[in-house]
Structures are given as structure tokens and as C-alpha cells.
Amino acid sequence: MPFEADPTVVSNFVSSEMRSEIAAMPPWLRQRGIGKASEISTVQRIIKQRQIHTICEEGRCPNRGECYSQKTATFLLMGPTCTRACAFCQVDKGHAPMPLDPQEPQKVAESVQLLGLRYVVLTSVARDDLPDGGAGWFVATMEAIRQLNPATQIEVLTPDFGGGQGDSEISPEEKQYRRVATVVKAKPACYNHNIETVRRLQNPVRRGAKYDRSLQVLRIVKNLDQNIPTKSGLMLGHGETEAEIMEAMTDLRAVGCDRITLGQYLRPSLEHLPVQKYWTPEEFARLGAIAQELGFSHVRSGPLVRSSYHAGE
């Protein structure tokens, strides 16, 4: 008779292992709370009522209470299921995401109005199943927000738009160009696309993504409209070296990237990549200073910094 593990024992073991990993975190990652519970519960209630999603909640961002109190939030468009399988990300993965909700742009716009948000970041899961990769959905949501909230600034954090369906006679490069151009034409306050990690670690960390393809997103934006600020970010702790980080920052500046965020990768579960290194606050400060020397106009560098951290500034 085959051995069958007791689910309770397995669950307790997993919980114990994860608790041990959390306990091993350095103090600068454990000492900070997630913000006011009242701010978080208000946003959670509104998004739950409208059946929409925020990356703040899906990714359990440690800064969400602080951002909510500053009237900033990041909405996750096109459902909570991603067609990619990045090994660091907590968002659900699957090859058959839910159909688009035709009311989602309006629901997001109403939520922005109810919450009195002054600055909104729109991001999305990768939707390689859609003909345009979801580019048109970003624009539709931006238009809906502006109709109800004309004073609210909108930043976009898009996928690389490199996969997906569409006209088979068009090259992948041309598809990507057209999709990025669709979003650029809508004039976001900032166009963000994260390279996430250094060139050497792209394959194990960002499955389905490519380093040069991500750089190309930022290059296209600047080629189309020099006045739109561009931004990118890296999550440190996957085994990268300081020299590789500097190389990545140099590559970003070479395509005209204006802003950068550097934060610590935290393992969401035992199914995700383990943390290879916890970078210290002092190391983050030094890397931030290097980023400023390289010419980035806005730099956010710290263990708990995330892509949309203080985005409204």
C-alpha cells in the first residue's frame, strides 16, 4: 500500500518552514508594519464590491497602507491570472485566464473617484492570449478614469507586449511596437516597464520574458514621445552582483530610462525562488547614489521599495 502523507502534517511542515524563513529575515525587513488598517480595509471593501483587482493586494505589498493614505493605488487589469510563469511573482498563473470584464474600465474609474485618488498606476497580468496583448485595454481604462477624474494622473506599468496572438504576417518586433505605441498615444504621466533582474538571471527569474525585449519597450516609448517619463525597476536578492546591477542600470540609461526603483525580493511562498541575499539598507543607499550619478531623475532604492512606491511624487 503506497504511503499517503497526512495533509495536516504536510501543512504544518510547510508553515513551519515558511515561518523559519520569515524569522531569518534581517530586522530592517521585519520591523515595519503595512500601514493603517483602516486605509487598507476601505480600499479592500471598494475593490471587492466591484470585483476588480489591485497589485497592492494580489502581491501583498508591504507599502500598501502608506500608498493608500497618500491617495495612490495600483490597479491590476484584465483579471488576476497571468499567462506567464515568472518564478518570483505571487500573481496566479494559467494558460486560460478569465474573459475580460467589459465593465472593468468603468469600475476602476468609479473606484478612483470613490477613493479620491490623485495618482493611479495601471498595471496588468501578461495576456498573451489577446490579439493586442491588452494594450487597448490600458487605453480604455485610462479614458474611463479621465472622464470621471480629470485631475488624476495616470501611470502605466505594462507587460513587454512581446507575446500574444495577432496578425501572423507581422513580426514580433512590429507587434510590440504597435502595442506600445497604442499606450503611448494615450499620454500616460509615466510609462513604466520593469526589467526585474539583471541580464544573466532573466531566464530563471522571468520565464517567458527577455532582457532586450524589455529594454526595447522603454526605447520605443522615448522614440515616440520624448516628453513621457519612463521608469523601470529591479528586485534584488536573486544572486546578482553589484557589477551586474550597475550594468543593468547603464543599459536602462542607454535607452533613455528616466526613473528607477530598487527593492529587495521577498519570497512569497516555498514554491517561489528562494532569496539568495538580503541586501542591506546601506547597500541600497549606495546603489541609489550610483543611479543618481548615472543620470536617473527619480531614484527610489531601499529594501521595501516596490515599483509604484511614491509613484505620485
TrEMBL record:
Cofactor(s) listed: [4Fe-4S] cluster
Co-factor: note: Binds 2 [4Fe-4S] clusters per subunit. One cluster is coordinated with 3 cysteines and an exchangeable S-adenosyl-L-methionine.
Pathway: Protein modification; protein lipoylation via endogenous pathway; protein N(6)-(lipoyl)lysine from octanoyl-[acyl-carrier-protein]: step 2/2
GO function term, MF aspect, one: lipoate synthase activity
Main location: cytoplasm
Binding site for [4Fe-4S] cluster 1: C56, C61, C67, S308
A UniProt-annotated Pfam family: Radical_SAM
Catalysed reaction, written as an equation: [[Fe-S] cluster scaffold protein carrying a second [4Fe-4S](2+) cluster] + N(6)-octanoyl-L-lysyl-[protein] + 2 oxidized [2Fe-2S]-[ferredoxin] + 2 S-adenosyl-L-methionine + 4 H(+) = [[Fe-S] cluster scaffold protein] + N(6)-[(R)-dihydrolipoyl]-L-lysyl-[protein] + 4 Fe(3+) + 2 hydrogen sulfide + 2 5'-deoxyadenosine + 2 L-methionine + 2 reduced [2Fe-2S]-[ferredoxin]
Transmembrane segments: none
Gene3D superfamilies hit by this protein: Aldolase class I
Keyword Thylakoid annotated: no
Catalytic activity, EC: 2.8.1.8
Amino acids binding [4Fe-4S] cluster 2: C82, C86, C89
Keywords: 4Fe-4S, Cytoplasm, Iron, Iron-sulfur, Metal-binding, S-adenosyl-L-methionine, Transferase
EC supergroup of this enzyme: transferase
Locations listed in the record: Cytoplasm
Residues annotated as domain Radical SAM core: 68-297
Matching PANTHER family: LIPOYL SYNTHASE, LIPOYL SYNTHASE, MITOCHONDRIAL
Assigned protein family: Belongs to the radical SAM superfamily. Lipoyl synthase family.
Protein's name according to its UniProt entry: Lipoyl synthase
